[in-house]
Specification:
mainly alpha
Length: 145
């Protein structure tokens, strides 16, 4: 099969993927106080990774990101489950969350919330599911050609 060398696509993909990954980090950390969170952050990260796969090909990206995205699904589910069950240790209902503030020298005060741990589980689950589905579709498409 003939494959064209799309220098414009590869160049813009590098910039767009960087912007998407930065926006995904913002969405993840802003999620417990404003719109965003693990679900949307996972989708935006998935979009960046799929864009890289489309531009550079499966082999090139698998060398850079040697991640089996299917493994992220149970890891994310376990993190989210343990976050919800962790409330039982404090005699609270399932999925009860709490927060506190810490002071980091030079950087200042930061709010820590257990909801971010839950969001991490959701993020990993969504990232693993979305990328695995799209990679599976692409591999099946390549087999039929």
């Amino acid at each position: 099969m003939y494959k064209t060398n799309n220098i414009i696509l590869k160049t813009t993909t590098s910039l767009i993927a960087f912007i998407l990954l930065g926006f995904a980090v913002y969405l993840f950390f802003a999620g417990h106080n404003s719109p965003g969170g693990g679900f949307v952050g996972g989708l935006v990260t998935s979009a960046a990774i799929v864009l890289l796969y489309m531009s550079y090909g499966m082999d090139a990206i698998e060398k850079i990101l040697p991640i089996d995205f299917k493994i992220l699904i149970p890891i994310g589910l376990i993190i989210a489950l343990f976050c919800g069950v962790g409330a039982f240790a404090f005699n609270m209902p399932f999925l009860t969350h709490t927060f506190g503030e810490i002071t980091i020298p030079i950087l200042g005060e930061f709010e820590l919330a257990t909801a971010m741990i839950f969001d991490l589980g959701v993020y990993l689950t969504v990232l693993g599911t979305t990328v695995s589905i799209i990679i599976n579709i692409a591999e099946n498409q390549n087999r039929t050609e």
